Amino acid sequence: HKEDNGDIYARGSQDMKCVGIQYMEAIKKLKSEKKTFIRTIHLSYNPEEELSGVLGMKKFVHMPEFKNLNVGYALDEGYANPTEKFNLFYGERMVWRFFVRCSGQPGHGSQFLPNTAGEKLRKVINSFLTFRAEEENKLKENPDLKLGDVTTLNLTLLQGGVQFNVVPAELSVGFDVRVAITEDLVELENKFKRFCAEAGEGVTLDFVLKYQNAGKTCVEDGQCHWWDAFAKACADENVCLEKSVFPAATDSKYLRMKGIPALGFSPMNHTPILLHDHNEYLNESIFLRGIDIYCTIISALANVAETNIYVD
């Protein structure tokens, strides 16, 4: 649905139907202008990104078809910025998901049983949510930090119990953690394991998902031909960039793990962040300007002469 002021309401209008269409429209425009470049431009549309890309990009980057593309540089998604500026992401936090399972003495609900799973679970939750509060305070107390600069942790799952009058032998809690790229991963994991040990015997931490640091893409002027080309194209379009670490997860990590530099960029300024939200929309003028911005950026990147070395 489009309002009279040009606001287009649609699921995916910000994430990521907009960018997918803008890519195609930009290529269509460049082809109609009979532009030629020294590099090949590939558009990639992959499934499963919302589920961590396990069946999509994660598999694709290990296939011979991907290697044969000889990818030198990549663009992926960003998100909206309500100000005049445009968000630019050069890295992303690592996703950790795990269960902490607490086993203890089962029995009848009328008793004061010792060493119960519930008591251990309370200690586990208190420790992890204290860590959460500490990270939140870092963000609140330092105006120079953004969400992607700290580690977020959220309790997202609780499992266990049979019926009201039975004390269960096991209770589990699931946490979703987005680890800042500045964290010492070994130290952080040891801290989480210590939380479990402090809760008592029979408390284990089992990872469901555990990504390692994929690194970050150079965004320093004069340090990389790719970045210089991207930055100049943005300047030519009067695009003022706000650089940061992406706070959530994208398919860019799989490219960076392969040694391929990737940037997260969606040309949406003057737009409230509404991805996955009610009344998600993108204004028509912002959308159309994004096509022109991509034409300039894609043209610049496709003419970078720097030789690509594929990292296997």
How would you describe this structure to a colleague?
The chain has 312 residues and is α+β, with helices and mostly antiparallel strands. It folds into two domains: 7-92 and 214-301, Orthogonal Bundle (DNA polymerase, domain 1); 94-210, 2-Layer Sandwich (Alpha-Beta Plaits). Helix content is 32%, strand content 21%. It contains eight helices and twelve strands. The strands form four sheets. The protein has a four-stranded mixed β-sheet. The protein has a four-stranded antiparallel β-sheet with strand order 6-8-4-9, with helices on one face. Helix 1 (17-32) crosses helix 8 (284-301) and helix 4 runs antiparallel to helix 5. The longest helix is centred in the middle third of the chain and has 25 residues, at 117-141.
Secondary structure layout plus pairing:
Elements: E1 7-9, H1 17-32, H2 57-60, H3 64-67, E2 74-76, E3 86-92, E4 94-103, E5 107-108, H4 117-141, E6 152-160, E7 166-167, E8 170-179, H5 185-199, E9 203-210, H6 225-236, E10 241-246, H7 252-257, E11 262-265, E12 281-283, H8 284-301
Parallel strand pairs: 2-11, 3-10
Antiparallel strand pairs: 1-12, 3-11, 4-8, 4-9, 5-7, 6-8
Helix pairs in contact: 1-8, 4-5, 6-8
Q: Give the helix proportion (percent range).
A: 25-40%
SSE class:
alpha+beta
Q: What is the strand arrangement across the widest sheet?
A: 2-11-3-10
Q: Please work out how many helical segments DSSP would assign.
A: 8
- At the third CATH level, what is the topology name of the largest domain? DNA polymerase, domain 1
Quick one: CATH class of the largest domain? Mainly Alpha
Distance between the termini: 45 Å
Poorly predicted ranges (pLDDT <50, ≥5 residues)? none
How many separate domains? Answer: 2
What's the Cα radius of gyration? 23 Å
Order of helices and strands: EHHHEEEEHEEEHEHEHEEH
Cofactor: Zn(2+)
Binding site for Zn(2+) 2: 15, 50, 276
Enzyme class: hydrolase
GO molecular function, one term: aminoacylase activity
